[in-house]
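Quality-control log, excerpt.
Job 1 of 2 completed; input and output follow.
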Amino acid sequence: MGLLLAVVVHSAAIQDREGAKLLFFKAAALFPTIALVWADGGYAGQLIEWLHRWCGWVLEIVRKLEGQAGFQVLPRRWVVERTFAWLGHSRRLSKDYEELVENSEAMIQVTMIRLMLQRLCRKTIPQKR
């Protein structure tokens, strides 16, 4: 569905694969029943084995199609891109305004809560404009 389960913001000095470990530590504690995780090619390599060894999850890499030129919708990858687009609608997340990573994480969570509430309210209560 593209809704967030866990959020981890880290400095640019940390490589994405190492940052993913921080996220998986957090997600494993909150959602022990997860069995499959999809990621793009940037997360291939040792992270696949580490994730399987650490919590028994399967990390499936969604790769570009052979001979792909230009943009093409990839299976499961579009869900992540759509979620980033939803977050991009928040002015506060359009630039890096926060000084602390904790504040950035909180703003991402607030934005997703707002998005979910808007969807719930739209189905139950007509919005006045």
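Job 2 of 2 completed; input and output follow.
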Amino acid sequence: MHSDSEEQLIGEYRLLELLSENTLTRTWLAEQVSVSRQVLLDELLPEQAGHQEDFLADVRAKAAVDHPLIGSVYEAVSTPGVCFYAHELLPGITLESRKKAAAPFKPGLLAHMLRRVAEAYLQHEALGQSTTPLSLASIHLDEHGVIRLDNLAVAGPRMPEQSQRDIMHLSEELQALVADGQPGTTRVLTLLSWMRGEHVETQLTWEQVRDLCVQIEHQLAEPSPAAASLPQSGILSTKKALLAVTAAVVGFGVIALLIISRHLHPAVPPPPPLARLADAILVPGGKKTTPDGAEAEIPAFRISAQEVTIGEYAAFLESLESLAKDHRERTFDHKNQPAEKTSHLPDDWCGMYSAAKTNGTWKGLLMTLNCPIVGVDWWDCAAYAEWRQARLPTQEEWFAAMGKDVPKPATIQPAGWIQVTAETTDRTPCGLIGMSGSVSEWSGGQAADPTNPLGGRKWVIVGGSFLKPGSNALTREWTDDRSLRRPDLGFRIVFDAN
């Protein structure tokens, strides 16, 4: 290995440290010079040029992974004599490091982390993405308790035994990370034993692991004079699905009862009441710098402090249902809305709303009614805004609000998927939430793309996205399609100043 690599460059990447090497590749800690960010760079050894097609096939498989918990591929480069790909350097420490340091986790936190891993691997299963073996070294925990996973996708079809392999291996490795003598210790250890196939007719699936973790999280979140325990024995029948019932009388006479079904998700507490959202924020009028660097006179306006939430949008849909009884459901439609568009239901509204009402998961995301509404097109947003006697912000208004009391908007720390009322670093001094990350947002008007001045005016999407690493408060996209819908695209609204 070569340790003195400060002056070595591959493309636009400065090689900082050689982290590992095998017979096929080298892995470097590198700096992407153009954006001053550290990345990992996997380089195909020059003498292994004959394996270039296989190497690039694996890279394409990794690039096809689209999940917020899984590390992203930035780019791949293949030129004569050079073949490499750059990917995300995940923050925090690995669970392998925690294990070596003999630093176990409280059971509730471990159940949460295991649930997140299960959610990520359910997406691998759903998309048929093959993966190399999962280990604690592939799971990262940052200082905020956020779990991220190395991108282990490889070319080829996914086989059922891959999930069985990972569930088995992870259950064995996690045992040492369960803190002793804590509320929930017995429950988590029993879950891990089930993952290994002990006391059950068949090994658990990732779906069952996720559902059991949800059950444990909710149990440990509820104050109780004595904690219930997962059963130490029992038979889980695959024909009758996952069913475990046990009762035991313990010191305080508490009866522990757990019923888990493969076809019936565990009962969860009722959703919390909708949080009171922050008031709209006043942006004074005057000359403002536009996102293209010019100056424009913008009248004063008020802008919602957060993106429109699932709970807020549900109220809008309920209003439309009432209007439909009198055939007035199109009252708030934009005057140019296509005649063939007859509904304002977001993509997979039933799944999203059901998950939000039960604090469940949807597309691998933890949902509540206070999360941003997504899967809506421009016409949906315009209709909602009309219902609220508001409108969508122009890109100039959006950037004027985002820049209020913010000298350098690019320094706002992007957030991942968040409840819009959550405390987050993605918050401007005046209280605007999720401008740099969370979800991208529709704006109300058209504008020219400065990188393509001859391309005409298009509809503008503003702000960063939790699904697009590297995006931030200055990010913009242009589209001709106002019917575009995405799981990372929402909106906020503006009102007149008075």
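Post-run check on job 2. Confidence is low (pLDDT under 50) at residues 1-6, 222-272.
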